[in-house]
Design goal:
Chain lengths: 259, 319
């Protein structure tokens, strides 16, 4: 089943076309890799899907609904979470608070009471609300074995933990689709191995994963399907072994022979 | 002498309310707004006009003053939310001046430069709170400060306060976490303005007359100084900041040197304080409020390994 689909998605900045008529599909339950040389438009594609940027033309469909041009927070609430290439944590907040923020929109809205009643209730029963958020947050922190760091400020964490914390925060929003923008960047081989295990574990929770990555070992190992972008265009898609043999992909990465 | 000290405490209280409002906007959401004087003026005039022209009871004018200021906060907030740092500061500064000029020129409503005189005193259960009876007035002002403090403290410790801080730390990440950043920024503006409006209301029944003269942007700067001096993101600290700034500005009169030291001296001193603070203690005297730890009892003091951090919030226009 197709979970997410872009049709002829285009994003141009003036004359520069960063993403050009890309048709990109994400199958439910799979790990999809998005690769391509630097400047191919991978992050731009991510930003246009997750609402941080608005496409020039084309549409994005998620679970059969058109989500093109919706706000980032609306898209997140619909079930798409993401991490960032340059880690974007709330640095001056604690590890726990970072993850609790992922739960922010989950509380304080109940269908049975009105908005004002909910607001008043949450003002007076803050502790209850907080403890629910805290418990959920702790669950995700223990998923990454970060429980011992709960009270630490996010900025004081070592790099690898910061990457994990960012994923934990995204997972706390309980997404059905998770976008990871270069999760292995700056990691050593051991950390990358651990990350691969984690991503598989996330898939086993029923969460569909899309990842941008330059580490080919990781991509070829864990991705069920791979899409290749070059100069803003979708040049290939298929299983890792198909992609490895695709002449267009080889050309994009290594250049043409006799060029 | 005692009266004079009480006067300083009264003004400290009025300004503490404004500074707490500024702290929500600047200390929590990280928006550099320079508009508290405008909201202060709206609150003052709301109370003055409603009680003089329409004979309203002071206590009824207080929420109206706050709400009108909050409305102004929303009106300024909505169009300027896309702006950051210096740009927002300039836009809000302009807005504050617009308010003052409207008041100065709308003679039929505000009395123009002559202002409004003979504002009735506040009274409660038949007891008149005469501003010349400084103790009673002091009590009233500080009850407002206490209520404001409890409210803001509660807000800061809730998920809403956390969301505001998240917006300050990283707006893009916050919106990607499902937080409606626009909504919270507008709310923060409205709350900050509300506090200033209530402060304006108190000011009106203290001086018993209002003129547009005092609501210059120097007031906004002074309020900002209070927040920076005390410590951004810490409500107790900004109350302390409000007191210190008031104390400093009345110091020459307090020690009987007002003939020797010109009134402009305090502006020089404010400038000096800001420079010194930014260099040696950018997080303010008390710094940010300590973060709650998981148990909620044991608290962890925020480590400030990077001294420039707090200064960033206020100058971070380049982001």
């Amino acid at each position: 089943m197709t979970l997410l689909e872009t049709q002829k998605l285009t994003r141009a900045y003036g004359g520069v076309v960063a993403v050009s008529e890309v048709d990109f599909e994400v199958e439910q339950g799979l790990i999809t890799g998005l690769i391509g040389p630097n400047g191919a438009g991978k992050t731009t594609l991510f930003n246009n899907i997750t609402g941080l940027d608005v496409p020039t033309s084309g549409t994005v469909q998620f679970k059969g609904k058109n989500i093109t041009g919706k706000n980032a927070h609306t898209i997140c609430r619909m079930g798409i979470a993401r991490t960032f290439q340059n880690i974007r944590l709330f640095k001056e907040l604690t590890v726990l608070e970072n993850v609790m923020l992922g739960r922010h929109f989950k509380v304080g809205r109940s269908a049975s009471t009105g908005r004002l009643a909910t607001a008043l209730k949450s003002f007076f029963s803050m502790e209850e609300e907080e403890s629910i958020m805290r418990e959920h947050a702790l669950k995700w922190l223990s998923f990454f074995h970060l429980e011992h760091l709960v009270d630490e400020l996010a900025k004081n964490l070592p790099y690898g933990h910061q990457r994990e914390l960012e994923i934990a925060r995204a997972l706390a929003t309980e997404p059905s689709l998770l976008f990871l923008d270069e999760p292995a960047a700056g990691m050593n081989p051991q950390e990358t191995d651990a990350l691969m295990k984690t991503i598989r574990k996330i898939r086993s929770l029923g969460i569909t994963v899309v990842l941008i990555e330059h580490d080919m070992k990781l991509v070829m190992n864990i991705c069920d399907t791979i899409t290749v972008l070059n100069y803003g265009q979708n040049i290939a898609q298929g299983t890792p072994s198909q992609i490895k043999r695709n002449p267009l992909v080889v050309e994009a990465y290594l250049g043409k022979e006799d060029a | 002498m005692l009266n004079f000290i009480l006067l300083i405490f009264i003004y400290s209280g009025i300004y503490a309310l404004m500074a707490m409002g500024q702290n929500v906007i600047t200390g929590y959401v990280g928006l550099l707004s320079l508009c508290q004087a405008g909201f202060f003026a709206i609150g003052s005039y709301a109370t003055a006009i409603l009680s003089v022209s329409y004979g309203w009871n002071f206590w009824l004018t207080v929420p109206i003053a706050g709400l009108l200021a909050a409305l102004a906060g929303i009106i300024i907030g909505l169009p300027t939310l896309r702006l950051k740092g210096d740009y927002l500061a300039i836009a809000t500064l302009g807005f504050g001046e617009i308010i003052r000029n409207i008041i100065n020129n709308w003679d039929s409503l505000t009395g123009g430069p002559m202002g409004i005189k003979r504002i009735p005193m506040a009274s409660i259960f038949g007891y008149t709170i005469n501003p010349f009876d400084k103790w009673a007035f002091l009590g009233m002002v500080w009850i407002f400060v206490l209520l404001g403090y409890l409210f803001f403290k509660r807000l800061a410790r809730s998920r809403i306060g956390r969301a505001l801080e998240a917006i300050r730390e990283d707006e893009i990440a916050a919106s990607s976490m499902g937080i409606n950043t626009t909504k919270y920024k507008v709310w923060a503006f409205a709350l900050g303005a509300f506090a200033a409006g209530v402060a304006g209301s108190l000011q009106a029944v203290f001086t018993l007359s209002v003129t547009p003269g005092p609501f210059t942007f120097m007031v906004s700067i002074m309020v900002l100084c209070m927040v920076v001096l005390g410590g951004m993101g810490n409500f107790i600290a900004v109350i302390l900041g409000a007191f210190l700034i008031q104390f400093i500005s009345y110091f020459p009169q307090l020690v009987g040197l007002s003939n020797v030291i010109p009134p402009q001296f305090k502006q020089i001193l404010f400038g000096l304080i800001l420079v010194v603070m930014m260099i040696w203690r950018p997080q303010g005297i008390l710094g940010r409020a300590p973060r709650m730890s998981i148990s909620g009892i044991r608290r962890k003091k925020r480590t400030t390994s990077n001294g420039g951090e707090s200064g960033d919030t206020i100058q971070g226009g380049s982001r």
